[in-house]
Amino acid sequence: MASFDVMPEVQLFQPAELDDALKLADELGSDGWLLGGGQDTYGWLKDRAKQPRAMIDLNGIEALQGIRKTDDGMEIGAATILRDIIRNEDINRDYSLLSQAASRVASPQIRNVGTLGGNLSQDTRCWYYRRGLDCYRAGGNICYADGPQSMNREHAVIGASRCVAVSPSDTATALLALDATMVAENTEGQRVLAAEDFFVGPNTHITQMTALKPGEILSAIRIPKKWASQRFYWEKVADRDVWDFALVSIAVSMAMDGNKIADSRFVCGGVACTPHRLTNVEQAVRGRTLSNESADAVAPLASEGCKPLNYNHFKLPLMENLVRRAMRG
Amino acid sequence: MNPQLSRRRFIKAVIASSVAAASTSGINQAAAQGNRPRGSVERLISININGQTRRVDVAPQETLAYTLRYKLGLTGTKIGCNRGECGACTVLINGVTNYSCSTLTHSVRTRTVRTVEGLQAPDGTLHPVQQAFIDELSPQCGFCTPGQVMSAVALLEETPQPTREEARQALSGNLCRCGAYDHYLNGVMRASGQNS
Fold first, then answer.
1. Smaller CB count within 10 Å for chain B: N or C?
2. Is residue A39 located within the same domain as residue A80?
3. Mean pLDDT computed over every residue of chain A
4. Which residues form the domain of A32?
5. Interface contact flag, A45 B90, Cβ < 8 Å
6. CA-CA distance, B55 to B47, in Å (whole number)?
7. CA A58/CA A217 separation, integer angstroms
8. Domains along chain B with CATH numbers
9. How far, in Å, CA of A238 to CA of A74, rounded?
10. Is the domain of A319 the same as that of A238?
């Protein structure tokens, strides 16, 4: 398939109200394309690998903007740009896990337009799929990334089902570790989804990365007080410090009781089709202190159940080492 | 064909009829815009570029880099990868760096755009960043330079005395395939009046 430089012909709507956007999204259905910062969008369109009839630009809608304090934590409008999240005082004080993750997304220019909602809803980076091939994720019945000669260094080591693509989002891992909830609006009303239900794997829905239905718009992300100002650890391993997606990343929230871990969330990015919670690590660290001994004891659990492909065995020790680093204290 | 009709008159007639056809389609388009769905965009728009309001016909899917280079003649902004992966097309939108290859022109209607053409003084004096880049021999082939300049200008307007590390961060979204990164950083430090 040829690669093209220019944008294809496509209609553009710039609604000012959420209701108008919802009506448009509902009418257009799968012919419509929700546009946040557009940094995932334009590549798809320029390649002609996805061919929507119209884009619905969500950036002019005030209801989707802004970072607000609520009774139970914070609410962030889905069209809030990552730059604003990185620079927000409240987020930096209480939920620095999110601002750290957001500050490692792509490049400065992309963070200046990229929205939180867009970062969460972006499609996977599997190059076979993005090349426009008729793989499982594109509605076909083959996976080009999971064969004897497939190049799958960046692909999944756990939770794969036919499709072996991974979730690319840095902020998704952080929000899962903060027990965030997602507000999805449609013409009939709204649904509030736990972060864990928002991201879906191929065994749930092989052509989607999120539980958003066609015509539905992610309007806000809510972060509960539960993990405010707790101990956090964030690290992203990528080939380059700028632009590149995570090979493996880790987002950790820890509630301490004295010097012991009372409760925690360990979430890995880049290893499964969704942000991947390390529940066995979470159970094993309960009651432990942060020390090299604890780190060595729980780290091997990180890669339990993983099934590497031909070229991504390195992700297993990487997951273990990231857990080890989070536990060193 | 009527043998009385000379070739010249025939050509004239063809031109006239095609003009008529074009104006009919113009009316259709205008009518279609009159009852277009709420929120869809008009093509003829004004954008504020380098302090001037420019009137321009913009397709809905058009990127800012395309409009700047091919409709407004502002070819200082380069298109490298056209995918938001190199930074050659960096411009300032409301004072903030953006990849113009990955920005819809329609999204900047209410904002101000600055390109590398808008930096020099009316008398032709270069912007301090441009002069410092020359003094430090920052560019090699020069293709990424307009983008590097814009990123450096945005940094210095917000942080007049950046550390070298802050400069490194600010310019991290601009690739230079000659590898002249350190020379650009020297230029930023010189432009901010600090010793490089």
1. N
2. no
3. 96
4. 11-59
5. no
6. 7
7. 9
8. 44-115 (3.10.20.30), 128-191 (1.10.150.120)
9. 30
10. yes
Domain count, chain A: 3
Percent of chain A surpassing pLDDT 70: 99
Residue type, position B40, single letter: S
What is the value of pTM for the model shown? 0.91
- Measured distance CA(B113)–CA(A208) in Å, rounded: 36
Domain match, A116 and A175 both? yes
What ipTM was reported for this prediction?
A: 0.95
pLDDT of residue B104: 98
The alpha carbon torsion through B175, B176, B180, B181 (nearest 10 deg) reads -10
Q: CA-CA distance, A38 to A2, in Å (whole number)? A: 21
Asked if residue A92 belongs to a domain, the reply is yes
Q: Which of A27, A50, A109, A130 to mutate to test the interface with B (most CBs of B within 10 A)?
A: A109
Residues A277, A177 share a domain: no
How do B52-57 and B90-93 pair as beta strands?
unpaired
Residues 6+ apart with CB under 8 A from B12: none
> Are A243 and A303 part of one and the same domain?
yes
Question: Amino acid identity of A160?
Answer: A
Phi, psi of B20 (to 5 degrees): -60, -45
Sort B25 into a burial class: Cβ within 10 Å, 0-12 / 13-18 / 19+: exposed
Q: Do B98 and A113 touch (CB under 8 A)?
A: yes
Whether A113 sits inside 8 A of B173 (CB atoms) is no
Q: How far are the Cα atoms of A55, A117, B99, B147 from residue A38, in angstroms, in the given order? A: 10, 11, 11, 20
CB under 8 Å to A240, separation ≥6 — which residues? none
Instruction: Please give the residue that has the higher pLDDT: either A27 or B1.
Output: A27
